């Protein structure tokens, strides 16, 4: 996935409030939030419908101009439901675990 967002500041350097503002104003999910979040807690959603909804939500995420910001936000807040930057909560948890196991970069000799 590529980002269309002009990166002048790394997403991880942005405050959560600024990330939320960017996602709310520029994210493609703002046009149909139920697509990404699903029905409310009082509605049931058959498994086949949920899987189809999530697939469509992932497609919307593919070309989103704030995909990278959304991923950063989701990794920080650890959501328990929804589709975030094309990932489900369990997939985001796996990404966090994977990042923790990556070797640290070799910075060479430090003065």
UniProtKB/TrEMBL annotation:
Keywords: 4Fe-4S, Disulfide bond, DNA-binding, Iron, Iron-sulfur, Metal-binding, Transcription, Transcription regulation. One of its GO terms (cellular component) is cytoplasm. It is found in: Cytoplasm. Residues 28-94 form the 4Fe-4S Wbl-type domain. One of its GO terms (biological process) is negative regulation of DNA-templated transcription. Its main location: cytoplasm. The keyword Disulfide bond applies. Its cofactor is [4Fe-4S] cluster. GO terms for molecular function: 4 iron, 4 sulfur cluster binding; DNA binding; metal ion binding; protein-disulfide reductase [NAD(P)H] activity. It comes from the Bacteria. The keyword 4Fe-4S applies. Belongs to the WhiB family. This is WhiB family transcriptional regulator. It comes from Actinomadura darangshiensis. The lineage of its organism: Bacteria, Bacillati, Actinomycetota, Actinomycetes, Streptosporangiales.
């Amino acid at each position: 996935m590529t980002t269309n967002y002009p990166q002048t500041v790394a997403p991880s350097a942005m405050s959560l409030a600024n990330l939320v503002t960017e996602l709310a104003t520029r994210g493609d999910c703002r046009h149909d939030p139920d697509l990404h979040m699903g029905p409310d807690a009082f509605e049931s959603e058959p498994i086949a419908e949920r899987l189809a909804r999530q697939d469509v939500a992932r497609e919307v995420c593919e070309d989103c101009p704030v995909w990278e910001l959304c991923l950063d936000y989701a990794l920080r807040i650890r959501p328990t439901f929804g589709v975030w930057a094309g990932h489900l909560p369990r997939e985001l948890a796996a990404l966090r675990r994977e990042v923790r196991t990556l070797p640290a970069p070799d910075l060479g000799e430090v003065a």
